[in-house]
Amino acid sequence: MKATKEHSVLPNLLNREFKQDIPAKVLLTDITYLFYKNGKKAYLSTVLDASTNEVLAYNLSKSLKIDIVTDTINKLMNSASFLHKDAFIHSDQGVHYTSPIFQKKLKENGIGQSMSRRGNCWDNAPQESFFGHLKDETYIKDCETFEELQEEIDDYIDYHNNYRPQWNLKKMTPVNYRNHLLNVA
After folding, report:
1. What is the DSSP letter of 80?
2. Where are the domains of the chain?
3. Is 3.30.420.10 the CATH classification of the domain at 26-144?
4. What is the mean pLDDT of residues 20-31?
5. Is pTM beyond 0.85 here?
6. CA atoms of 148 and 146, how far apart (whole Å)
7. Mind listing the pLDDT tens digit for each residue in 53-75?
8. Are 101 and 70 in contact (CB under 8 A)?
9. What average pLDDT does the chain have?
10. CA triple 15-21-24, angle to 5 deg
11. What is the CA radius of gyration of the chain?
12. What is the C-alpha to C-alpha distance for residues 11 and 55, in angstroms, rounded to an integer?
């Protein structure tokens, strides 16, 4: 996929203020490459809640076509029981996120958009950190097929959201921390 004149970069509304203690308001997204058995490659698109580190939606794909990100947003809208009324999604300036198709999908769903400064991975650090943990804590390279890889990703995201306590979440899991924030609000 290549950028066209219609692609547009949007301002950085987040400015690294990730922890706002409001679940489902600041959403982070990105795509990572996953290399599995015999040099095979897949791509993982995720939406991460910046306040809770919970993965709210994800999509594993064999291709980098635009539907990798639009399908992720569809999954977000179908699975999220709630999104904050001022929810916005923050990404890098990759071709998928500057695409008019992606930007229209967000507008149709009432989700604002923010972008990192060019070439600055620190502007989306929690998302990058999640991908690092995923790659360190899974057996992706042992997966023989795409289906095995899908199962490995499904299992890890369930583990990450529901069973993996995190120091920066008061030693709670992402789901428990979300519930904690909602109860104290």
Report:
1. -
2. 26-144
3. yes
4. 93
5. yes
6. 5
7. 999 999 999 999 999 999 999 99
8. yes
9. 91
10. 85
11. 16
12. 24
